[in-house]
Amino acid sequence: MGLFGSIYVGKSGVTSMSAGMGITADNLANLESTGFRASRALFEDLFARATTEAPPYDQKGLGSRLKDVEVLYHEGPIKQTDQPSDLAISGKGFFVVSDGHEIFYTRDGQFLPREQEGGRLRLSLPGGYDLLGWLCPEGTACESLSSGPLVPIEFAKYIPGRASTKITLQMNFDASKPAEETNLDLYQKWDATEEEPLPQGAYDFKAEVPVYDSLGNQHTLNFFFDRTAEERVFEFFVTLDPAADPRGSGRYQGALMGGKIRFGSLGQLEGLEDLFYVTDPTGTQTPLTTDDFSEEGFPLLRLNLDGTEQRIALDFGTFFDAAENSWKRLDDHASTSFANPYAVLNENVDGYPPGFFETLSVSEKGIISVRYTNQETFEVARVPLANFASPDELERAGGNLFKAFNGATPEIFAPGRTAPGAIFGGALEGSNVDLAQEMVRLITLQRTFQSNTRIITTADQMLEDFLRQV
């Protein structure tokens, strides 16, 4: 190889190191880019064999060139943020996003709720790419979702009120209270024409339970409890503020339902009996029939709060088994009768008022829970992750996005602690660029670049010296 060949070899080194410098500069420029994946330059030698020369002079090294730019997919640091919709991946996987036409993959989890038509909110990147996942149908546990078509994750900005359909009351009835001498029940004591329809002293205990109508308006039901003349038997009487009863006026305005609760000798709940409705303000009693029980076997309280009939199941911890014609106890929340004061141990009422979106949270399993201003929380979707068998199946697309190369298909999996990757809500993954390593590489590239330029200038000087002698 002559002097001219040395110049071209030096030029190849300068070109290669310039390309490497650009890759290092790109890494350093993206040191703070969320979810950025660093790259490194891979070089190879240029070689030729001269057919007109004898060995070993026929082997010619012609310099170097950039062989490939390898993307490094190891994890970056996870940083906590104050934004609950920020998501970070621990482990393998990519978020799946779309612009409505193409599918992209990213480790950038800087998602924000973006308003859509129809009062819906959709989780999207600032650039407009929508996060894809599995939506949870109402009544389905999101954790059970692990496959299916991916669609943009969205949820309601506003939810209307929902009417109450069930009241669960787990109570202790004071067994130390003596049985009544006269069997005058609460129904007979009620008088809506008085300032206090049921004055204090006429009952042992009162519980106020909020319920909601179909418009989400809140109403208060009064549950009165009292001993009866029979041992281990208590009565209950459900009423409404007489002024809120649309059925008209009369002594029994506001009176809704009554019955008795029977306990065993050990304080265990045995069942309900003598259940009746107060069907009108004049006090007409109608015993409950089999049609007046829910599918689960709970007695139904009938209400008319907003012009439409509303039925609410009453669950004291027992239900009626129609097949066996007997009451069965629900041991996990059955009421009791011990020698302790009356107390409401557990109160749960479904239904809620209207509410606007307030905040959301994301579990490590990718389950998105949305909370509204009415304090109701719903699981709305699950975020899956995409994993590729080989890094060669991805190519950079800009904007912290990747595209599948040549139609490669990833494995879609549900995240979690035992899965290849898990999700952290309220956090972002930083760039995986190693600053110290990049600075060392920068110095190495600089020195190599200088050495190759020295080859060019040295060969040039030698040519100049030769030409001077000619």
TrEMBL record:
Record bears the keyword Magnesium: no
PROSITE patterns, A to Z: FLAGELLA_BB_ROD (PS00588)
Keywords, in A-Z order: Bacterial flagellum, Cell projection, Cilium, Flagellum
Function in brief: A flexible structure which links the flagellar filament to the drive apparatus in the basal body.
Compartment(s) where it occurs, according to its Swiss-Prot or TrEMBL record: Bacterial flagellum basal body
Lineage, opening ranks: Bacteria, Pseudomonadati, Thermodesulfobacteriota, Thermodesulfobacteria, Thermodesulfobacteriales
Annotated Flagellar basal-body/hook protein C-terminal domain residues: 426-465
One GO-annotated biological process of the protein: bacterial-type flagellum-dependent swarming motility
Domain called Flagellar hook protein FlgE D2: residue spans: 191-352
Keyword ATP-binding carried by entry: no
Protein name: Flagellar hook protein FlgE
PANTHER family recorded: FLAGELLAR HOOK PROTEIN FLGE, FLAGELLAR PROTEIN
Organism: Thermodesulfatator atlanticus
Pfam families: Flg_bbr_C, FlgE_D2
Gene Ontology CC annotation, any one: bacterial-type flagellum basal body
Record-stated family: Belongs to the flagella basal body rod proteins family.
